[in-house]
């Protein structure tokens, strides 16, 4: 195991990697329930999508660990599942079987781009300032997701966002955030996973007291009614590739391709920076293999019955726990498998337990903010655009796309053509096309 994963070479050990894998899994385990909830609105069977979600997440994460030796876990992406459901199926009236065919096709194109090194060229074309901005923006995005999950931040009357007020959930979130912060500040080993476990126990106790005392209308967390649930194959291999290959479907699968591509690339850049998983050129380690695994994950998603898989930004939680090798991803992937049968157990880990961890990981990732040269406006303005838009549009893709476009336009008008590569200009063209197709 030491020789295969090169643990000592990356300054890690088996115990650290296992702990990091568990942490990564716990911070992204919500997808096992959330993804089926979203996709079931299309008419897809909830249990069938749950089985596909677990299977895709497990296989893709394990493959990432073994083939790319990186601590990145994969699962069906948030945002992409919303596009699949609300835009593609409910909006454009595309049958979900055809939509799965589009996911599969986008995965095949991913693989071709990865094998021909095109996606590596894309990574190389990302300016340094935008890489740091994306890492920081993802950190803010994670923090926002965590706070929104527990209602600490919400839509306000006359405002875009507002403080959600004090209630049991927000108070539990604050308690959890304080506990997590103290553990992290004291550099307690396993701080994030300890906080998730302790916060879950606190939430369970408060739920019990609150229901009996009458100050809770429903429990925040409760013991599941059942432990075992058998998997269903209602959406397994039900994709319609023939219908997805029509001219009218070119836009949808291109959007799936583009969105997943930039989500993956930006996540690789951000998480790799946080864990210092970079080569001598400052590029993420084994990026070719990582991108290929991501492409295979998307292809499997279409086959198994879910929206596109992508590398998860929550992987940063495991990296911050010390995960530096593929063993972290393998552990996270293996932990998905039992939930093909024991998914009800996840109800014991509520949002108030994982949200503080997401916020703290956001703090970790925001550290790259300092590496942007804020005195060079032609670098700072595009960087700030990406940094600002990622959390506020709730989309990593929007942040990086607009960051690219603003960067290119400023450089052109300043006559700094040496800062622009052919690959970056090609990306800009596709970015404009994607924006048109999306809106």
Task: Please explain how this structure is put together.
- The protein is built from 19 helices and 4 strands.
- It has 439 residues and is mainly alpha-helical.
- The protein has one domain (2-438).
- The chain has a two-stranded antiparallel ribbon. A two-stranded antiparallel sheet has the order 2-3.
- Helix 4 (46-68) packs antiparallel against helix 15 (326-336), helix 5 runs antiparallel to helix 12 and helix 12 packs across helix 19 (422-438).
- The longest helix has 25 residues, at 250-274.
- The protein is globular.
- It starts with a helix and ends with a helix.
Average per-residue pLDDT, rounded, comes to 87
Largest sheet, in brief, is: 2 strands, antiparallel
Unreliable residue runs: none
Q: Radius of gyration from the CA trace?
A: 21 Å
For the largest sheet, list the strands in their spatial order.
Answer: 1-4
Oligomer: single chain
Number of domains in the coordinates?
A: 1
Secondary-structure-derived class: mainly alpha
Strand runs, count: 4
Share of helix among residues?
55-70%
Strand coverage percent: under 5%
Count up the helices.
19
Cα(first) to Cα(last) distance is 49 Å
What order do the SSEs take from the amino end to the carboxyl end, as H and E? HHHHEHHHHEEHHHHHEHHHHHH
Net shape: globular
């Amino acid at each position: 195991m030491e020789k295969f994963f090169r643990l000592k070479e990356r300054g890690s050990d088996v115990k650290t990697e296992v702990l990091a894998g568990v942490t990564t899994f716990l911070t992204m385990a919500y997808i096992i329930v959330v993804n089926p909830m979203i996709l079931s609105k299309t008419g897809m069977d909830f249990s069938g999508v749950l089985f596909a979600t677990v299977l895709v997440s497990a296989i893709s994460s394990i493959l990432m660990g073994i083939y790319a030796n990186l601590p990145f876990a994969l699962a069906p992406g948030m945002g992409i599942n919303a596009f699949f459901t609300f835009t593609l199926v409910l909006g454009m009236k595309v049958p979900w079987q055809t939509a799965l065919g589009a996911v599969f096709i986008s995965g095949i194109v991913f693989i071709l781009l990865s094998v021909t090194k095109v996606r590596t060229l894309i990574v190389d074309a990302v300016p340094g300032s935008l890489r740091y901005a994306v890492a920081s923006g993802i950190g803010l995005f994670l923090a926002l997701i965590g706070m929104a999950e527990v209602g600490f931040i919400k839509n306000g009357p006359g405002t875009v966002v507002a403080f959600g007020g004090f209630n049991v959930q927000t108070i539990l979130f604050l308690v959890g955030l304080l506990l997590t912060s103290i553990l992290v500040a004291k550099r307690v080993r396993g701080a994030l996973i300890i906080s998730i476990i302790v916060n879950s126990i606190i939430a369970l106790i408060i739920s019990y007291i609150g229901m009996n005392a009458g100050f809770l209308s429903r429990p925040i967390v409760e013991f599941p009614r059942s432990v075992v649930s058998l998997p269903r194959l209602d959406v397994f291999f039900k994709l319609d590739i023939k219908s997805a290959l029509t001219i009218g479907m070119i836009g949808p699968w291109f959007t799936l391709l583009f969105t997943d591509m930039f989500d993956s690339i930006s996540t690789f850049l951000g998480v790799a920076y946080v864990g210092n998983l970079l080569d001598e050129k400052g590029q993420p380690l084994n990026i070719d293999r990582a991108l290929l695994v991501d492409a295979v994950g998307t292809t499997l998603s279409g086959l198994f019955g879910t929206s596109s898989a992508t590398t998860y930004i929550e992987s940063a939680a495991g990296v911050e726990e010390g995960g530096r090798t593929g063993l972290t991803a393998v552990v996270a992937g293996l932990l998905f498998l039992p939930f093909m049968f024991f998914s009800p157990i996840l109800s014991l880990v509520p949002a108030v337990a994982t949200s503080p961890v997401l916020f703290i990981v956001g703090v970790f990732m925001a550290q790259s903010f300092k590496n942007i040269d804020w005195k060079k406006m032609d670098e700072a303005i595009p960087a700030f655009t990406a940094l600002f838009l990622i959390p506020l549009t709730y989309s990593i893709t929007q942040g990086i796309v607009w960051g690219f476009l603003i960067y290119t336009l400023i450089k052109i008008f300043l006559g700094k053509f040496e800062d622009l590569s052919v690959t970056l200009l090609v990306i800009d063209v596709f970015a404009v096309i994607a924006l048109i197709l999306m809106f």
